[in-house]
Amino acid sequence: MVLAQLDKILPDSFETIFHSMPIVHQWVSNLKTTGVAVFIQKIFAEMEVVHIMGLFMLSASVILTSLRLIGVGMTNQSPSVIEKNTRIFLHIGIVLAIGSGILIGISNAEKLYNSSAFLMKMIAMVAGIIFAYAVMIPVAKADGQAGTSARPAFMIALAIWVISLVFFSVKNGANTGMFHVLSAGGMIAFIALQGKLRWVFLAGVTAIFVVWNIVTHMIILESAGLAYMNANKLFMYITGAWVLALSLVNIYGKSAVAGTTNFGRMVGYATILVWVTVGAGGRWIGLS
Amino acid sequence: MLHEILASHSVLNDFFGYVQHHWGEHTTAYGRSFSAALLEALNAWGIVEGSHLLFAMLFFGCILVFDARLLGITFRDVKISEVSEKLLPFTVISMTILLASGVFVFFSKPQDYYHNIWFRIKMVLLLVAVINVYIFHKIVQKNQAEWDSAASPPTKAKMSAVISLTCWVLVIGCGRLIAYSWFECGKPHSDWMNSLEECQTSPLGAMTPADFTRQLANEKTANDAAAAAAATPAAAAPAPTAGATKPEAK
Fold this sequence. Notes:
The complex is a heterodimer of chains A (288) and B (250).
Chain A: H1 2-9, H2 14-17, H3 22-31, H4 35-42, H5 44-70, H6 79-107, H7 109-113, H8 116-141, H9 150-170, H10 178-192, H11 196-219, H12 226-252, H13 262-287
Chain B: H1 2-7, H2 11-21, H3 34-40, H4 44-70, H5 80-108, H6 110-115, H7 117-138, H8 144-147, H9 155-177, H10 191-196, H11 209-231, H12 233-236
């Protein structure tokens, strides 16, 4: 019920946001006739490869630095050492991904203007950039300690990311992409949790998946339409709640690894997941 | 005769064709094959394809950092064995999920992928990357203890890193280009491209530019003949028969 209301309240795309300003739609429509757009359309596939390579490169920095903040991965080195050595990949990756993304966007503007997944991706990307540059890097440089600007930046980025997740969750056609965010969160929690908690977490996830499949393959079938979609969404939220709960246990638990703090672990989880949201959003532009 | 049969027949093409179009058609809803059902599934396809992409990010991230260390670009103060040891679990997990999801992606359109030139190049590059890993472990790493802490490892290690990075960048590129149908069988291509893709055995067939020109000429001749026939009413329209009624005006 709440989801249905949210779906109605939230804009579907940039087109919905700027609906009362036809001049914006006109400008977007005209973009495809510009010289840049015509040129990019000829090398669209190559540009997509550059875009993906950019995302892959920045993921090297984001994943390794964030995992170290959580307390896993290259734990023999301090977070500041990991950050210093992988920062170059973040810079190059961001330049490649955003540069090629703008060019792809110009050549394909009308489709993106009407896409829910694109709107969600853009919101998540703003959060991702704030997380990477204003939160992850300063916190890693301080070996897990929060500086004066990191906490407010974290709150702002978190708020923006949550907005993007709400979009991702309620918009039909894109909401299945949330699976990637949940599975990435689950995988981080599984790696980061220690001892019995790790297996409790896995048992919980397995139980949810078994019940989920029984319900959506034997009780509420695909032919049920809206009821089937709602059942899927419900189980998605249950999985999300389980992953979040165990992640919080991990974040606020004790860690024997040097250079990890509660705040640092939270930053680590959030920074990886926000970029997974960006990647998943990008993929669902094509699929939705 | 035997040569012609062999040229137009491929066991793998037939097998993948069966899998793509017929396997499971009596089991699934709407008479679809399992492959078609996967491709059209509400959630499963996006999850499989998305997982393939996202775990490729993790995998490439690990490879990039390790190869950058071998090249002496990053972690110059850290032992190579330490970087390798710490990244290995993530590399193995992501590679396992990549392979599993990759099998499902291939299963969705096995016959199409089998004839796709980018898919074929990707498979060759994967093989080269695997051979490179094998050579690295068997030959390059033999005396690693001597250069494990070196900020700039020896040339053979750097060569291995360059080959690895080149292969994986090209694998990712080819993976994205598979979606494009520029070189699809049935379109006019050079003989060597038709051979590389085994288009002769594909359901779409092999076509050269000369075949295409000939086909266009034949179509033009047929169209001209049809137009000429239409221009002569006596020949085109049958003579009215007795008792024929005029169509009613609407």
